[in-house]
Amino acid sequence: MSHSPFLRTIAPVVGGLAIAAPQVASAQDATFKFYGQLNFGLFSVDDGTQSESFITDNDNSNTRFGAIWESPLANGAKLKFHFETAVGLNGSGSVSIDDTDLEFDWRRTELRKVEVVYTTPTIGAFSFGQGSTATDGFAEADFSGTSVIAYSALGDLAGGIDFRPLGGAASGVDVGDAFSNFDGARRFRIRYDTPDFNGFSVSASAGEEVLREGDDREFYDLGLKYARDYGDIKVDGRLGYSWIDSDEEVAFGSLAVLHEPSGLNAAVSTGRQQEGDDDYVYVKLGYIQNWFTVGSTALSVDVYEGNDFAITGSESSSVGLGVVQRFDDQNLEVYATYRTLEFTEASTPVEDIDVMVIGARWKF
Asked: CA of 88: how far to CAs of 82, 141, 165, 179, 332, in Å?
């Protein structure tokens, strides 16, 4: 597999840093943390022709585990090694109406993070290895507390479910084809993050897809983030731009606002593929209250409108409702959602897809 000249040049430098830095760290000050989560739901899907109910992994935030080793260095710097992997379940983003089995099939694409991160207070952070590109999460700013079951990446909820013509066979277009938020991903990359400057920070990355056979695309990402509190109001704004193999460009961003005393919050996400007419807008309104002593209750309603995904001239739309009840002492969230998904294109009218889920995420 070929690698970009940039990565071939920088890899020895970063590798040398990772080897040398621990020599100046104090072993007794190093920390190690193991963590993970289980996240399963009972899904009920109706594609207008068939309906199925099944238990599966919730790919909005899939079942995973990881470990972090971190050591302080001189002058306030830190060195971190981060490993994280999904467990390899056939989850909600890939199950189809005809294949709902909860199967284990761990592949190397389940690796989420295998990276070294070197951070300094004045220069910023340098990351090397498999991990988030500079725009990962930049379409997903969200203070609602319901993103575990409802956020702008609608394909994670029911991505493998096909739209069907009235009473007919699958159309060949599934939810994952018809809905996208263009968000960044995890790749084998070199990444740099600036320190925070009055709420502003910049990130940049260059990398390749190395976990999928036959896919050696190169990815270049640039992100600008602004996160700050204004008294009782929290603001999180993100703008991202991605270049893929020098022939595909995508611009996207998101903005979230929370008024903490009232619990009212809002989020918007939008993006456009520069070579085509693919674009979308996602809007979400939320409300968080401490009605119960066990933890906060979060409610949300969202709307998605997209154009030209899968087929030129098509329209994709969705409305979703979500509720999440936290149990703080147990590190547990119990959730429920209802979502309807519509796909419209001129040649073949298709049925709407309805999805209902109840489930729970437990972190350890």
From this structure: 19, 27, 32, 23, 22
